[in-house]
Amino acid sequence: MKKVFLCISLVLVAAYMLAAFIWTGKFFQKERCEGVRVIVEQRDTVQFVTPELIVNELVRMKIDPKGKLLSEIDTEGIEEAFKKKDYVEDAQCYLKSDNNVVIDIVPIQPVVRLFADSSSYYMNREGKLVATDERFFVDLPVLSGNFSDNFPATRLLPMIDYIEGNPVLRDLVSSIEVSDSNNIFIIPNIAGHVVNMGTADGYESKFAKLLRMYREVLPVKGWDMYDTISVKWDHQIVAKKRRGGSRLNVAEYLPEEDESAPDMETVMTSSGNKVKDNI
């Protein structure tokens, strides 16, 4: 008897699910979208992205779902259309039971101001770029130079995070300029010299050496003594006296020549703090 009752119950459940599926299909075939609700995540940096902007874009792109049959609305297509916008970091689109379409928009969150290829952009953590224009201005770390698929600008984000998380370095660093992947220059707010960090690796110890240089050497030798301070090599700081010319002119990088320090004056090693008298 229990088995018969169980079988009957399963048949009823299956019949209900089938009926619900058929009814839902007919419902979608006849019902139309009543409206669009846009939810924009609030971000102080990108205030021009508003629900009104998104609704106007729907009309402009001819993908406004209002009035369309629910069965004809391509929610995934709407999502992808907005994800391609430079000012959008993420977008979600879905139908609600009240016959409305909801669009959730996450505006782009830039983390750096990028100058590359003779253009200026804001860049987020995923490397998405939004061109700078009159829509908004964000005070961010400045990064410029030569980048490629092998060495994208996002490679510098850990170093930038480290700088932004250290009050001393945040006040010290004006910008970062990349000559190539082996010659990354810090442009300090202290005018007169640049700092060659070498590669993007080991920046914590490199900054520690640089701060030591500022504490122990430059107060003795003079803040305008050197043109370039290099912390790119292990266990030493190397400085080049000022001789005029561009501070960012560096020789073409050759791996076989990067094994030892160049012909510049060694100011201090990490094993001691003695400053050579002939510098």
TrEMBL record:
Give a GO biological-process term.
cell division
Region (Disordered) spans which residues?
Answer: 259-279
Superkingdom per UniProt: Bacteria
What is this protein called in UniProt?
Cell division protein FtsQ
